[in-house]
Specification:
Elements: H1 44-71, H2 80-118
Helix pairs in contact: 1-2
């Protein structure tokens, strides 16, 4: 029984060394020009908008679940402690969304300051 070897399709494809962590190199377009940025950045404004929406949803959820837990009867289903746990979970998620917003806004401010220094 002979083993057939598949053709090596990676011949001519540049590979980075496996021991290099965080190595970046310029990417080439199909035309061979270096028009793509080395460190591509996602749309920060859209991320800020989504963070604001998430913050508002979780704050609203915290308030509504807290009011529902307060007004629920003693032996109601779901119990007031379960609803309170949902309110606490929404509160924690709103804190995380707020922290993410603070980090994104400070990142945008640093980038604007850096651009002004370069000009």
């Amino acid at each position: 029984m002979s083993r057939r070897r598949s053709p090596d399709i990676s011949i001519g494809v540049p590979r980075s060394p496996s021991d290099v962590v965080g190595h970046r190199r310029e990417r080439m377009d199909r035309d061979g020009t270096n028009s793509e940025p080395v460190t591509a950045r996602g749309p920060l404004d859209l991320r800020i908008v989504l963070g604001l929406v998430g913050l508002l949803v979780f704050l609203l959820g915290t308030a509504l679940f807290a009011l529902w837990a307060r007004s629920s009867a003693a032996h109601a289903t779901p119990s007031s402690s379960e609803i309170g746990a949902l309110a606490a979970l929404c509160g924690v998620l709103s804190l995380l969304a707020f922290e993410d917003l603070v980090l994104m806004v400070s990142r945008r401010a640093r980038e604007r300051c850096r651009r002004r220094r370069e000009e």
